User: Fold these one by one.
Assistant:
Number 1:
Amino acid sequence: MIKESNGKLGILLPGMGAVASTLIAGVYAVNKGISKPIGSVSQMGNIRLGKRTEDRNPLIKDFVPLAKLTDVVFGGWDIFEDNIYEAAVNAQVLDLPLLEQIRPEMEAIKPMRAVFDKTYVKKLDGTFFKKADTKMDLAEMVMEDIRNFKEKNNCERLVMVWCGSTEIYIQEGDIHSSIEKLEEGLRNNHPDIPPSMIYAYAAVKMGVPYANGAPNLSCDVKAMVELSKQTKTPIAGKDFKTGQTLMKTILAPGLKARSLGIKGWFSTNILGNRDGEVLDDPDNFKSKEVSKLGVLENILQPEQNPDLYKDLYHKVRINYYPPHGDNKEGWDNIDIFGWLGYGMQIKIDFLCRDSILAAPVALDLALFLDLAKRAELFGIQEWLSFYLKSPQTAEGLPPQHDIFLQQQKMLNTLRHIMGEELITHLGMDYYY
C-alpha cells in the first residue's frame, strides 16, 4: 500500500547554484503556466499498461501518486548568501524576462549556511558556511536546519538532492565500512568524510530520502547503505546523467545491438560554469573521470565480445572554458568498424545546456524518492539508475548503464508498486 502524497513536499538542495536555481525557477514557471516541464519524465512521460491492444498509456504522473508540483517547497544550503533569484541571475542560465515573472517567489528563497571545506573543492571561495569543532557537530547543525525548515514551511515530507560541486576523489575505506566507524570518524574529523557525506548522513539519519547528483562518495558507502536500511530511507546515486554520458548510454547500446565494433572513443568537454571551474582541478576531475569511464566497458562487455571491443581505447577530458558559461559542449570522435573489419567514424558535437538538462533529472529523483519512501522501498533505489552516470548498486553487483534497460527497469518498478503486470516484450504480449 502506497501512502497518499498529502500535504507539502520539501525539496532540500545542498548547493543552490546553477542547477538548483534552474530547477526552482522551472517549477515556478510551470506552476504559473509560463512553460512546460520538458525533460521531466515524471511529468511528461507516458507508461504503457497491459497489452498493446488495450491502448492504456497514461502519463506517469497520472498513474503513480507523485507529489504535485504545486505542493513542492524548496530550500537548501549554499556557500554564497545570494537569494535564489540572485543566484539564477549570476548563473546566467535563464533569460531575465523569464526570471522577472517569478522574481518574488525566487527572492523569497534564501539559502542556509552550508557545510563547506575548501580542502575538498579548492577552486571555490565561499564565505557563508557553518563553523564547528567536529564534523558530527556540523551534521547535527544540518539536522537542526532540516527540522526547522520542515516546521517553518509546514511540510509533511522531505527529500534531499545534492546539487553541489564535485569534490576531490576519495576511495571507500575502513572508516566507511559501518555506521559506528562513520560516526566515530565524524566525531574525530576524519579526512575521508567530505561535506556531501555529512549532508547524506544527516538526511538518512532523519529518514529523509537522499539522492547524490555529483560523483562524490556521499551515500555510496557501506555505512550509508546500512543506515538507510536501519532508518528505512531510500537513497540513490551518483552523478546526474546529462550531456556527453547521456549520449554514450544512448549510442553505445545501439552499436552493440548491431554487433558493430569500436576501436576508440575520444571524448572532450568544454564547460564554463562553476562546475567547469571546480573540475579544472585534477583532484576534482578524478572523481568525474572515474564516473565517466566505466560507462562504455559496462555496456559493451569486452570480455564477452572480444572481437568487437577488447582493444577499445576510451579517453575522457574536461576543459574549463569560461566564455561558454553553462552551455557545455561535448565532442566525441568514435572509430567503429563493420563487415570484414572495414572502418568508419562517428562525430558528435553536442552543444547542450548543462543545468537545463540537469534540472528535470533532479526534480524526477526528488519526486520518485518521495514515492519510494511512501511505498516503503528503502536502501539503494537501483531503478533510478536511469538518471545517474555512475549508478549505485548493491555490493558486488556491476551497475547497468544501458539507458534502455534502465528505462525498462524503472517503468517495471512503477508497474510493480501499482500492482500492474510487468512488461517484458515476451510471450503473447509480443504479438498482442
Number 2:
Amino acid sequence: MGKVYFASARAKKWKYEDSMPGKLERLLKETGLMNYFSPDEWVAVKTHFGSEGAHRIVRPVFLRKVVEALKRIGAKPFITDTVRIRGLDYLEVANQNGINHLSVGAPVVLADGLYGNDNIMVKAGDILGQIAVASLIHDVPAMVVCSHVKGHINAGYAGAIKNLAMGGISSSHRTCGWKCGRGAMHTIGEGELVWDSDKCELCLQCQDVCPLDAITFKDDEIVWNRDICWRCGRCERVCQNESLTLPGDDERFMASLAEAAKAVIGTFEPQKILYINFLTEIQPECDCMPAADVPVMQDIGILLSDDLVSIEAAGIDMLAASAPLPGSLAQDKDIGEGKDILMELHQRPYRLQIEVAERLGLGTAKYEIVAV
C-alpha cells in the first residue's frame, strides 16, 4: 500500500503554518528528503512552464519551497521542463508566468535543449517501442515531479503520469522526428484530420493554436501539413463549430502515456523520484493551451508520495468526489452533484492511465492517506 501525504487547501487559522506554502514545508519535512536525495546531488524539479495566456500552473512560491527544502539537505536543485514551443520563447513564457531564477531560487533550464531535440532513445514498451527521453532528465540522478492537476484534451485527467509522459519526452528526435517524441503518443493510428467547410467560419483558432504551424488557410481552404502534425488534437478542441475532427484511440493513448512514464522512470535508480500533485485551480484544459478557463471544482490541496500510481489514484478519487463550481464549464455542461466532473467534460477513460501504470510495475493503486 502506497503512503500518500496530504495537506488540505483550507486555511482555518490565520497563521503561516496553516497556509498552503506552510503546509508544503511540513509535507516536505514529513517525507524525509534525505531518504531520497544526497548532499551535492543534482535534483531536477520537473514542472510545466505554462503558456502565454495559461497562468494556472504550479505557482512559483511552491516551486521555491521545494527548492529551499532540497537546499537544506545539501542537494542542488534546478527547475526544468521540455520544449513545447521554440526554446527561447518557452523560457520567456516561464519568465512571464513567474518562473525564473530570482523567484524560485534555482536555475531554470530546458531539459531537451533550445531546439527540443536533445534526447536519448529509451525502450518504452509494446505500443511505443522506443521513445526520446529528454537528455537532462535521462542523465540527472534524482527528480521531484511537481504536477498541476487538471483536465486534458486527450488524457481527460492530467497529473503526474502525464507530466512524466508528455513532459519528460522531447517533442522530436534528430533523425526520426516527432514520431519518436511525444508525438508518438498522440499519433496512435495516425488519424487524418477531417475538415467540414460548410461548418467552418474561418475564425482561424485552429491555425493559431497549433504548436507546429501545421495548419494554414489559403483562399479560404484549409492546408494541413500531415507530415509535421503530431495529432495533439488542439485544433479539434478549439473548433467551436465542430468543423474539424481527428479520430483517435483513447485506450491505446492512455496505455502509451503509462509506457512513456515508465521509460522516463526507468532512467532513475529506485527511490530517486518524489511526486507532488497540486490539486489547485483545477481547470478543464492543459496548461499548454493559450488560455486558462476558471476552475471546475474547488481547490483540494497538495499530495506527496514516492509512489506514482498511489498519488494518482488518491488524487483521482478526490476529484471524483468533488462538487462542480458555479460559473464554470462544469455548470455549462449541466454536471450535477455526484458526477465525475473530468469524465463528464472530456469523455475519456482516464483511469486506464492508472491501471496500465500499475500493471507495468510503476506503483500500487492501493493507498493510505496521511494528513499533515
